[in-house]
Amino acid sequence: MSLVDLAPQEALKTFFGFDEFKGEQEHAIQSVLDGRDTFVIMPTGGGKSMCYQLPALMMDGVALVISPLIALMKNQVDAIRGHHEDRRVAHFLNSSLSKSDAEQVKRDVAEGWTKLLYVAPESLTKAENIAFLRSVRISFVAVDEAHCISEWGHDFRPEYRRIKPIVKDIANVPIMALTATATPKVQLDIQKNLDMTDAVVLKSSFNRDNLFYEVRPKKDALQQIVRHCLQHAGKSGIVYCLSRKRVEQIAETLRVNGVKALAYHAGMDSNQRSKIQDQFLMQDVDVIVATIAFGMGIDKPDVRFVMHYDMPKSLESYYQETGRAGRDGGEGHCIAFYSHKDIDKLEKFLQGKPIAEQEVGMQLLQEVMAYAETATSRRKFLLHYFGEEFDEENGPGAKNCDNTQNPPTLEDRQEDAHLVLSAVLEHKNKHRMVFYTALLTATKNRQMEDYGAVESAFWGRGEKEGLDHWQGIFRQLVVLNYLRKEVVTYGVLHLTDKGMAFLSNPQPLMLAKQRDFSETDAGDSLVQTRGSAGGVLDPKLRDLLSVLRKEVSAEKELPPYVIFQDVSLDEMATHYPTTPDELLRITGVGSGKAAKYGAPFLALIAEHVEAEGIEKSEAMLVRSSAAKSKHKVTIIQLLDRKLGLNDIAAGIHGNRDMVLDEIEKIVGAGTKLNLDHILEESLDEECLEELFDFFSESEDDGLAAATEEFDDAYSEEELRLAKIKFMSEVAH
User: Fold this and answer.
1) Angle between the 244-256 and 221-231 helix axes, to the nearest 10 degrees?
2) 666 and 635 Cβ atoms separated by less than 8 Å
3) How many angstroms separate the Cα of 87 from the Cα of each of 16, 32, 79, 116, 636?
4) What is the pLDDT of residue 534?
5) Beta strands 287-290 and 236-240: pairing type?
6) Three-state secondary structure call for residue 585
7) Please, what sign has the CA dihedral across residues 592, 593, 596, 600?
8) Which end is more exposed in the chain, N or C (fewer Cβ atoms within 10 Å of the end residue's Cβ)?
9) CA nearest 526: which of 269, 249, 337?
């Protein structure tokens, strides 16, 4: 299929099947066809890749596309091949290829079959690749994710700085730079580094009016993530975290609670990451929990929510990651969890880095903090950051953020601001916020004593308002640029020119009523309370459930603990499950137990809720991943292979007691296990029958009564094994 002689509109229809271009696509394509350097700034989902793919197909030679990620290259190449009858039309050349595969790619390029060749910047530094590229006809060079060039970009890569001299050494051809996130400063840096200051600059609006932006205090964040995923079951979403450990924890917790979720991070091998991406694209999995490694070039239009468990290190990162939601123009909910503790942690990570890098990092973090704590339209704030004006009253998507739907309360804090700035001036810009808040609230500590702060004229001047109040004032004054944090001396506050002007001529200053952005939850606990409908045990309901359990156990001729254990009744009397799905979130309740015994308990709870006028909140109980056996899959597989306790212990790097602990957890959560081959080693059928008779009549949930009854006839391990078999066969 040759597009060389077609007009851009005809080529678009012929190759891609689209009737018209989006935004600035046609201008960008025509600019490259005219031989001009072209700089395309287009938000995620705006059709950036079309700007270089179509002219590559229309021009003689091969277009060289420089791209930062192997996964991104593969995704783009697969997409192009899907539109063409000859798979040789697009290739990538990177470290993932074998030597023979790389040679085949070069042959296809040399023979003129290939129109797009994707390369990593590292590949360009290899002499053999440079020599090869000199030998073929290059139509133009496209630098994708061009923000990687700039030290002020959110994903700076030093190797990107070397692109221009290498390209110049290969061929004198037009350059197209493309990015989805670039502040005016980053734009200039890209153009300067690529020596394309005379380029045609095409900038689309950064406004994604279908996205809803929301920032929440980082309290019970894990519960909120689980709840959101469950309430939007079947919809695609991404949860971003900064650490691999947290990614694994949240993905596991989501799976335990019935969400089809997978973890994704750079610690996985490329084949594993590729498989996970494909599962997400094919809707075999609903939610990906990932570090920032996930998402670049993943062309999935129906991602319905993007959540940030950790705030990213820059607003560019935040904008690009949230931009993966709602690319089809449909719903896109962007929720970020924010705490001062996270910002402090990110600031500490900057220590020890070169001063220039620290300065850049601190300024980027200040913007993140300002966005999270702003009382104004988040959309306007983001667009202003990218150099774009926005009408917050009538602009597209003006109401799509938490601040515009529920505006924070503003208060005139002129006097408080004057007191704070005066204290900083009086103490000669030498201290961090913790010093000043202690000073104003008369908090005695070692630093206060060493400095002699009690003698300061500001000692105790704000004692009435309290520590949280003054921390909030300081942070907002930093956000509003009345104060700045010194980078080198980590956190020391300095008055800015704006702060000095305010002291000289105080004016009314409207600040947002302080929100609590302290992180109070441990981050790992996932036992969710129900507000007005729970959170503490309902003793009346607990007694009713206990009576019902006794009745059911008598009817079934089974001990009460076989029906439901005490911990299960406690959670029922705390969280009021009234549906089968809610019951399955109760500890110790698997699908078999719920089906066998659940109906009367659900009916009783529903009747109690109605009779007592209890209002169930929208919150829901989420099950902790900690309640699940860490080695469940491994143990089940080894039991299926009829291995003994010692072999299983070796398989999970533990001992026999640890294996029994894990097996008890598995059975307690509702899974049946076959332990016959293990029991046969020490207990015959007559012994098991004797023990089963005892367990069926005993109301003791533990082994104390059995130990006393049988004295030394059975070891503790034998009693545990028999009890596990009994629970597995009878309770489920």
Assistant:
1) 50
2) yes
3) 15, 24, 10, 11, 44
4) 43
5) parallel
6) coil
7) negative
8) N
9) 249
Dump pLDDT digits (tens) for 392-441. Answer: 888 898 899 999 998 888 889 999 999 999 999 998 888 888 889 889 99
In sequence order, what E strands does 147-235 have?
175-179, 200-203, 211-217
pTM: 0.62
Which secondary-structure segment (H or E) carries 25? helix 25-33
Q: What's the pLDDT at 599? A: 94
Mean pLDDT of the chain: 83
Query: E-assigned strands of 292-400?
Result: 303-308, 332-338
Q: Hunting for tokens 């000095």 — which residue is that? A: 500
C-alpha 351 chain-centroid distance: 25
Q: Which two tokens stand for residue 722?
A: 């028999």
Distances (CA, A) of 577 to 149, 223, 260, 388, 619: 54, 17, 22, 49, 12
**Cα(652)–Cα(659) distance, rounded to whole angstroms?**
8
Distance CA 143, CA 118 (A): 10
Side by side, which strands form the sheet with 332-338?
Answer: 211-217, 332-338, 303-308, 236-240, 287-290, 261-264
Mind listing the domains of the chain with CATH numbers? 8-203 (3.40.50.300), 211-405 (3.40.50.300), 414-508 (1.10.10.10), 531-625 (1.10.150.80), 628-731 (1.10.10.1390)
Q: Which two tokens stand for residue 403?
A: 């601040």
